[in-house]
């Protein structure tokens, strides 16, 4: 990144600190409880629960309308219109989540049947859609670089949710009670975020709904709705397909592997989320350093992903055995494959924000859609032949398609693929860090 004055630089560093503190605290404490739950439920029930979570996630991707980056970008660029953006975005989120809740129920009736236990699990799990409008406050916090409030909101929900899990575990509760956990956490986040906003940022009565603003937000985000759906399809459809083609136990083992592989995804997300306003600022005020700054970000995230992947590949058996126990040892090979998806995920998180900054998000529908098609097609072929290992390979190929191959087909986004390929070379980042260190020492 280009050098900032100390106050400006400290602002971004502080924001990253809060985001990292939030995720690290929850990861360390949450992994213990989540692993206890996985061991308690065993692969069959754990798989049944994760099947429902994956099923509902497909509708959640559409319910949030893909407006997060659009809302943040609009507030950053037009702060005077913040209340109109918040009011309009909130109404859009409420409508979107209610519609998707009803759609989820209709779909589950058709695919599962009213009398099936899986329908009941999906019904309860989908109730969290009714609380997801809290995201509008989180978007405001992102735009204002006030991630300490995200830290408090997320951790209050974390404490409530994990206290509920611990109570269920200690009391040896039945499986039917565990499926309420995601609803409890979503409801807690809803109330916590809105209390924080009222106490720290202003009154809800100042929010104003504008049909024109709502239309503008939706117009700029509808492509991201489809994109988010495609992302969820190629990241979660495998669990649904495994549940239909294999067994709940296979879903449980596969989910265990995926959960470990995704543990570190908060790192690139926290970095990119915090730096997105800075990226917009560099683009608007320091254009010559814009792409070089993006390249440094790509390199850093790429090598972070490679380092994590190498470590988990080498110690997959030990890690799975240590975390989940012998009943989940079948997750070791899937983990050693799935962990490499993180390289593409880290790249994709950064490139997604670049697309928004360039107002090129409409292109993402094509290559993310390509990834979904590749994943679903390969799952049909590989799952019957190779089981959950085949599903891991399908997802890895799909991730590579989305990050590198598909964007090469479009002239306006081809540069992003080229930059991501170049990110395998760490020399520019090392050179930048050495110069930055030298400047700090001499300054």
Give your account of this protein's structure:
It is a single chain. The chain is mainly alpha-helical and 443 residues long. Helices cover 82% and strands 0% of the residues. It has 19 helices and no strands. α12 runs antiparallel to α14. The chain is globular and about 55 Å long. The chain starts with 5 loop residues before the first helix and ends with a helix.
Indicate the topology.
Layout: H1 6-63, H2 68-77, H3 82-111, H4 117-126, H5 135-143, H6 147-170, H7 175-178, H8 181-200, H9 211-245, H10 248-261, H11 266-285, H12 290-314, H13 316-324, H14 332-338, H15 341-357, H16 361-386, H17 388-405, H18 411-422, H19 427-442
Helix pairs in contact: 1-3, 1-4, 1-6, 1-9, 1-10, 1-11, 2-5, 3-4, 3-5, 3-9, 6-8, 9-10, 9-16, 9-17, 10-14, 11-12, 11-15, 12-14, 12-15, 13-14, 14-17, 15-17, 16-17
Please supply descriptive tags for the structure shown above.
single chain, mainly alpha, 443 residues
Please provide the ordered H/E string of secondary-structure elements: HHHHHHHHHHHHHHHHHHH
Give unreliable regions as ranges.
1-7
Share of helix, binned: over 70%
Global structural class: mainly alpha
Count of helical regions: 19
Question: What is the 3D shape?
Answer: globular
Number of strands: 0
- What percent strand? under 5%
Q: What average pLDDT do the residues reach?
A: 83
Indicate the radius of gyration in whole angstroms.
22 Å
Distance between the termini: 18 Å
* Major pleated sheet: none
């Amino acid at each position: 990144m280009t050098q900032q004055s100390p106050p400006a630089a400290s602002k971004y560093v502080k924001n990253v600190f809060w985001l990292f503190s939030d995720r690290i605290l929850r990861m360390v404490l949450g992994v213990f409880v989540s692993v206890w739950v996985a061991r308690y439920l065993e692969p069959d029930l754990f798989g049944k629960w994760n099947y429902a979570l994956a099923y509902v996630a497909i509708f959640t991707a559409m319910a949030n309308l893909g407006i997060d980056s659009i809302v943040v970008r609009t507030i950053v660029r037009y702060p005077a219109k913040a209340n109109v953006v918040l009011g309009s975005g909130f109404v859009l989120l409420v409508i979107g989540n209610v519609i998707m809740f009803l759609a989820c129920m209709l779909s589950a009736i058709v695919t599962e049947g009213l009398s099936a236990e899986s329908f009941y699990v999906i019904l309860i799990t989908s109730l969290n859609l009714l609380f997801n409008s809290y995201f509008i406050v989180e978007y405001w916090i992102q735009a204002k670089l006030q991630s300490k409030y995200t830290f408090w909101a997320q951790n209050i929900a974390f404490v409530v949710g994990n206290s509920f899990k611990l109570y269920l575990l200690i009391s040896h509760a039945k499986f039917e009670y565990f499926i309420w956990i995601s609803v409890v956490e979503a409801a807690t986040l809803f109330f916590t975020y809105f209390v924080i906003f009222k106490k720290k940022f202003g009154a809800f009565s100042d929010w104003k709904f504008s049909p024109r603003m709502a239309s503008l937000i939706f117009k700029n985000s509808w492509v991201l709705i489809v994109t988010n759906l495609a992302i969820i399809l190629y990241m979660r459809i495998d669990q649904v397909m495994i549940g239909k083609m294999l067994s709940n136990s296979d879903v449980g083992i596969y989910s265990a592997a995926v959960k470990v592989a995704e543990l570190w995804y908060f790192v690139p997300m926290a970095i990119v989320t915090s730096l997105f306003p800075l990226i917009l600022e560099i683009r608007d005020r320091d254009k010559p350093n814009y792409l070089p700054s993006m390249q440094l970000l790509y390199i850093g995230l790429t090598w972070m992903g490679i380092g994590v992947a190498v470590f988990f590949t080498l110690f997959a058996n030990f890690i799975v055995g240590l975390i989940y126990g012998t009943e989940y040892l079948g997750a070791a090979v899937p983990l050693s494959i799935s962990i490499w998806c993180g390289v593409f995920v880290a790249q994709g998180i950064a490139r997604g924000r670049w697309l928004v900054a360039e107002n090129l998000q409409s292109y993402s529908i094509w290559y993310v859609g390509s990834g979904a098609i590749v994943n679903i097609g390969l799952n049909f072929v590989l799952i019957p032949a190779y089981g959950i290992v085949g599903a891991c390979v399908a997802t890895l190929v799909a991730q590579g398609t989305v990050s590198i191959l598909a964007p090469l087909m479009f002239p306006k986004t081809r540069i992003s693929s080229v930059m991501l390929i170049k990110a395998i070379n760490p020399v520019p980042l090392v050179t930048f860090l050495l110069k930055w260190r030298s400047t700090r020492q001499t300054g």
